[in-house]
From TrEMBL:
Its EC number is 4.2.1.77. InterPro entries: Pro_racemase_fam. Signal peptide: none annotated. GO terms for molecular function: trans-L-3-hydroxyproline dehydratase activity. This is trans-L-3-hydroxyproline dehydratase. Belongs to the proline racemase family. Homodimer. The gene is L3hypdh. It comes from Pycnonotus jocosus (Red-whiskered bulbul). It catalyses: trans-3-hydroxy-L-proline = 1-pyrroline-2-carboxylate + H2O.
């Protein structure tokens, strides 16, 4: 996240436009005139299926079949069952190790492409699921293992976005058909739905709305001193 432009609060909901590394994202925060509320939601950058049913050889696990989706960053998706694990009951360490092995294997065996920025054409991590991709009113559970074997406490905003894009691409859900996603680590819930079909380069894409609970965790104060020679910022030629 770079920074956001925060407008004066408006009732019943305030739109906050955020400038993220992947592009502009608009969040919508309930406001009753006194304080913000829940659920908070956001509209994603264009999300798309980069590859489906991709066969990958994972050392220690053999051949697996993965989907690769983009929701602001790229993730590989597969059921934990393919790796001999259960996303809901297996030890987190075992899930992390298996997901990391998949990430490294995909990086070596599949080249990613981003329509606008090759700086974004990298695999951020692997999301292991319970395999329940077809539409259901029941939550579907996943665990996101990203960066340097980090585990998200939530179902993951960009991950839910990418998973919705994949499900829409496969015809498993329709526009405005909401699904609920559960984190296997904390049990927290996000809701996601594709709200608009669009194009992103050569990809058929969707704008995804993700909603969930949000709580304040801290504040920051930035100070500008008059004698600071770079107080107005700088740019490179």
């Amino acid at each position: 996240l770079d920074y956001g432009l925060v407008p004066a609060p408006a009732r019943p909901e305030t739109a906050v436009r955020l400038r993220c590394p992947c592009g502009p994202v608009t969040a919508f925060v309930p406001w009753d005139g006194h304080r913000s509320g829940n659920p908070v939601r956001f509209h994603s950058v264009p999300a798309f299926a980069a590859a489906t049913d991709l066969a990958i050889d994972v050392p220690g696990h053999g051949k697996v079949v993965v989907d690769i989706g983009y929701g602001g960053t790229f993730y590989a998706f597969l059921s934990a069952e393919q790796l001999g694990l259960d996303v809901c009951s297996s030890k987190t360490r075992d899930l992390v190790s298996a997901a990391s092995a998949v990430t490294e294997a995909v990086k070596k065996q599949f080249k990613l492409h981003h329509p606008e920025s090759e700086d974004l054409a990298f695999l951020y991590g692997t999301i292991l699921t319970d395999g329940k991709d077809a539409f259901s009113e029941e939550p579907t559970t996943n665990i996101c293992v990203f960066a340097d074997e980090q585990v998200d406490r939530s179902p993951t905003g960009s991950g839910v976005t990418a998973r919705i894009a994949l499900q829409y691409h496969k015809g498993l859900i329709q526009l405005d058909q909401a699904r609920t996603f559960r984190s296997s680590t904390t049990g927290s819930l996000f809701t996601g739905k594709a709200v608009k079909a669009t194009k992103f380069g050569n990809y058929s894409a969707v704008i995804v709305e993700v909603s969930g609970e949000a709580f304040y965790t801290g504040t920051a104060t930035f100070t500008v001193e008059e004698e600071d020679p770079l107080k107005h910022g700088f740019s490179f030629k």
